[in-house]
What we know:
Blueprint: H1 7-17, H2 20-26, H3 34-45, E1 63-65, E2 68-70, E3 74-76, H4 89-100, E4 105-106, H5 114-120, E5 126-130, H6 135-147, E6 152-156, H7 166-171, H8 181-187, H9 191-198, H10 218-228, H11 235-245, E7 248-254, H12 257-265, E8 270-273, H13 287-298, E9 303-307, H14 313-321, E10 327-329, H15 331-362
Parallel strand pairs: 3-10, 4-5, 5-6, 6-7, 7-8, 8-9, 9-10
Antiparallel strand pairs: 1-2
Amino acid sequence: xxxxxxxxxxxxxAEKRVPRMFYDYADSGSWxxxxxxxxxxxxQKIKLRQRVAVNMENRSTATTMAGTxxxxxxxxxxxxxxxxxxxxxxxxxxxxxxxxxxxxxxxTMSICSIEDVAAHTTAPFWFQLYMMRDxxxxxxxxxxxxxxxxxxxxxxxxxQVIGQRHKDLKNGLTAPPNxxxxxxxxxxxxxRWCLGMAGTRRHSFGNLVGHVKGVSNMRSLASWTxxxxxxRLSWEDVAWVKQQWGGKLILKGIQDVEDAKLAVxxxxxxxxxxxxxxxxxxxxxxSIEALPAIVNAVGSQIEVWMDGGIRSGQDVLKxxxxxxxxTLIGRAMVYGLGAMGEAGVTKALEIIxxxxxxxxxxxxRTDIQAVDKSIxxxxxxxx
Length: 383
């Protein structure tokens, strides 16, 4: 096998090994995919200042995110259907994150359940929640999260309605895949994936099937989900979730300064500047472009994180320099998982950490706490 040196190497390998519908699910955006592309492209516009003759020994990328000690300012983002990229995918990703020393966030729409992940890890993980019309189902899920020992709740605000993702529609996305001729032909080219799936019982949405009233299989789940995502979501609902949960609350999907100010008033512990990986409002700003204005407005009052487009440790450093006190990686993790399972997630984290560490040194810093926008070339970054 070729030597893996960067996230792109993992992406290429994942594309070969993961069934088309699940690879496309993770590696796509909505409509024209313009915002999806901008998320990565806008990082490339930001240039770094190289410094020399600086003592580069004893470097540290360690910090905290919402009070949790982390080896670097990175957490694994919640990604739906992670367990379809690789058998037991959420468990494998959570174990890799725990061993590496960063947080793992489990999606509501995961294949492995809250209880599955809790049974296979010792470090508290975080859970991502979608607002559903069925409040009793939400109360029950929050109680399961509490029993599992999760240390933070991440409430996603930007999926009240679902953006149109053309590839998912064309592929007929389901979990597990429907036995169509096209799917069978594609699966025949993915023997490693098929073998893994044959060895696990986790093939559908573990947090919902058997836990939510009226959901017993994939068909009833699809109907329930279409009816349950709540387009009426308001800041009063955010307050309700905060009251039900009682612990650390992170709000994900903030792209506008006015919403960031309202998030501060809600009493959240952190916000994530995010456009859902370019999968919702196509034509929106990239996350890295939206970040500075939000940091300037509320960064002294609340922890501001960001996700979208991070494919390297340099991207993490640029985000930190622009005021993000944490970042989330979704696709970089998915590529590693699809390529090599748990070892692939570990590899992705190692790649990002090494790039972050070495780039920081080249910019004349040895501690990430001393990094600010002075490491960036003026005129190349959003203000």
